[in-house]
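Quick one: structure for this chain?
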Amino acid sequence: MSGALSPREAACVYDRIGRLQDWQSLYEGPAIAELLRAGNFAKARSVYELGPGTGALAERLLSDYLPKDARYRGVDVSPKMVRLARERLHRWAERARIDLVDGSLPLPGPDGGYDRYLAAYVFDLLAPGYSVRVLEEARRLLGQAGLLCLVSLTPGRSGSSRLVSAGWRRLWQLDARIVGGCRPIDLAPLLIAAGWEIRHRSVVQAWSVSSEIVVASPRLVGGQ
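Got it. Here's what it folds into:
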């Protein structure tokens, strides 16, 4: 199997991975910390997360970053991840929910109902055409003052990170399931082409794995 996984294939992979996903924090941790700083979550009132996995990032948001009355909603295609995330967030059950979805669009949620749309290591899993459609959904779900907060694997720029990202992509081309469906991508050009204004962009390297952090806002019609 080569190429991007379908939502159903991704669900099967992450049902198998389960709690082992938390080990990815070894290389994801610094980039997630940067995203939490750049996303200004202390002023968020309602967060929508695509692919919350085990709920580790949502737990950090609810514990340490979001206002005490802010609401959170996550959607995931993996039944096992949904179960794990619900267990992890049970303390905040009155204002946090996790829903199982099948990957079809539109995503559940009201137009303009959220001021943060979050996806950590999800867009590097998606097929390019599907990514564009998901960005359209993010624009629908966010209010005009909302922020799109993304982090993904990205190609290494130098030294060992270039070797690691090249090897990662070769494994993905051989069988995407080997690397959990993910491969290094460039987020910023995708967002600019889709009509988003970049507010923050940085690249963080940990254990020779490079991650791109981008915070963007919807570009108004006519550029106003």
